[in-house]
Write a structure and sequence with these properties.
The chain is an alpha/beta fold. The chain has two domains: 4-206, L-asparaginase, N-terminal domain (Rossmann fold), CATH 3.40.50; 214-329, Rossmann fold, CATH 3.40.50. The protein is built from nine helices and 20 strands. Strands 4-1-5-7-10-11-14-15 form an eight-stranded mixed sheet, sandwiched between helices. The two termini are 34 Å apart.
């Protein structure tokens, strides 16, 4: 098969133009975006393009958009060597995490990228991000794609899609992978850490089902007993993600632990994730050991984005408590570094 890449536009800053009357950035025609990158013609491969029906600011993207995008890639999977997705930065890490669980046994790259400045701006980062993403998607070893997973390329670095989080809305280096080393860096040469790349076997599988009954609760010193009890009583969720301090610690007040135990007894999955970007849940302290003894599931080194999207993926399977926990703790897409 002749080398070919499907370039998919979903929206985001990369394809925006300034409406001077309103002072707002608005999506503009995808064909105009492509005209800004004449270097696309220099690739020794066919670069075909497609836009989703309604391009969006990524802040407005919902989990149904992940399903639509995943289905689009799945429907075209056997027609292309790889895929590059242009996506807004605000929720890109959620989308890459979600697709990493929705696809199994990928044998081709799905690389997401975007930009901090619109492609028409003089100092835009968009052109380099797009061109390098395509170059990475075309990399081969022994006649086969070198990259076989969902990735995110930004700021001269290629990240595993479910190990990345956005840390800046102002810097070109907008993303970081707190616990997984970068898969590749782009300098004068592309430097790929081949030992980190996934090697998949088996037939491609795509799961379009996602559960949405997930609630995130951030621990902070001002939480009151009445407030938390009302959340437990009136907010409907199947998964409660507790954003704890540091290595998974919380305050040790009996009412808090008792409410968590009550939820778990009702079949609610309660997951502990660190609110520190570079933190991981490690039950070393008394205040985190209490949570473990209460039945909470540790997220280890997973990002919040990965915890949310993996939970949604597993919820759709209608698993019993033990099996949900087993599959959550299984490193299915190298989300645990």
């Amino acid at each position: 098969m002749e080398e070919s890449i499907l370039l998919i536009y979903t929206g985001g800053t990369i394809g925006m133009v300034l409406n001077e009357d309103l002072g707002l950035l608005e999506p503009f025609n995808f064909d105009n975006l492509l005209k800004q990158i004449p270097q696309l013609q220099k690739f020794d491969a066919h670069i075909n393009t497609i836009s989703v029906e309604v391009p969006k600011d990524s802040a407005t993207m919902r989990f149904k958009d992940w399903v639509e995008l995943g289905q689009l890639i799945f429907d075209n999977y056997y027609s292309y060597s790889g895929f590059v997705v242009l996506h807004g930065t605000d929720t890109m890490a959620y989308t890459t995490s979600a697709l990493s669980f929705m696809f199994s046994n990928l044998r081709k790259p799905i690389i997401f990228t975007g930009s901090q400045l619109p492609i028409g701006e003089v100092r835009t980062d968009a052109i380099e991000n797009v061109l390098t993403s395509i170059e990475l998607a075309l990399l081969k070893e022994k006649g086969r794609p070198l990259i076989n997973e969902v990735c995110l390329y930004f700021g001269n670095q290629l990240f595993r899609g479910n190990c990345v989080t956005k840390i800046s809305s102002e810097n070109f280096n907008a993303f970081v992978s707190p616990h997984c080393p970068v898969l590749a860096t782009s300098n004068i040469k592309l430097e790929v850490n081949k030992s980190l790349l996934m090697s998949n076997k088996g037939s491609l599988l795509f799961s379009s089902e996602l559960g949405s009954s997930v609630f995130v609760y951030k621990i902070h010193p001002a939480i009151s007993k009445d407030q938390f009890e009302k959340v437990c009583e009136f907010v409907k969720f199947k998964v409660l993600i507790i954003e704890s301090y540091g290595a998974g610690t919380v305050f040790l007040e009996n009412w808090f632990v008792k409410n968590l135990e009550m939820l778990i007894s009702k079949g609610i999955f309660v997951i502990n994730v660190s609110q520190c970007v570079f933190g991981k849940v490690d039950f070393l302290y008394e205040s985190s050991k209490v949570l473990l003894d209460s039945g909470l599931i540790s997220s280890g080194s997973m990002t919040l984005e990965a915890v949310i999207t993996k939970s949604m993926h597993l919820l759709a399977k209608n698993l019993k408590s033990k099996e949900f926990k087993t599959q959550f703790l299984t490193n299915t897409a190298k989300e645990l570094c």
